[in-house]
């Protein structure tokens, strides 16, 4: 793959598809699509947890510096192979709905790592000292 790279922001069409899916799942507490879209556009495009910028993540993935079956292959984005290209919308409290107060932008790596296991505060503590955080939990058992 050539080292030519041009950042591509997420399209409104992609955002509308994401919104429609979350409404269908009944996990959406923004007022409407425009409220969500305005929130999204107002966000700085960097990961809430590690500060990786969207264009940096996109470059790593599209130029195949990191590989996954979830990433585009040879720079081609297709269904099931678009993770890592854009920042993801993460819920700070994973059991609560998507809303202005419960959403942040997260890179694929942090969002995948955080999963639905941690809330925002616990994940930040975990990131600082992974082994120590887990050892402390074991001692609480």
Describe it for me?
It contains six helices and two strands. The protein is mostly helical and 141 residues long. The chain has a single domain (12-139), classed as Herpes Virus-1 (2-Layer Sandwich). α5 (120-128) packs across α6.
A few lines on this structure:
By secondary structure, this protein is mostly helical. It has helices spanning 12-24, 33-42, 54-62, 108-114, 120-128, 130-139, and strands spanning 88-91, 103-106.
Indicate the percent of residues in helices. 40-55%
CATH level-3 fold name: Herpes Virus-1
Total domains? 1
N- to C-terminal distance: 50 Å
What CATH architecture label applies?
Answer: 2-Layer Sandwich
Going across the biggest sheet, name each strand in turn: 1-2
Cα-atom Rg, whole angstroms? 16 Å
Strand content: 5-15%
Q: What ranges have pLDDT less than 50 throughout 5 or more consecutive residues? A: none
Q: What does the main sheet amount to?
A: 2 strands, antiparallel
Tell how many strands the DSSP assignment holds.
2
Structural class: mainly alpha
Level-1 CATH class name:
Alpha Beta
Q: What is the molecular shape?
A: globular
Mean pLDDT across the residues is: 93
DSSP helical segment count: 6
Give helix and strand order, one letter per element, not per position: HHHEEHHH
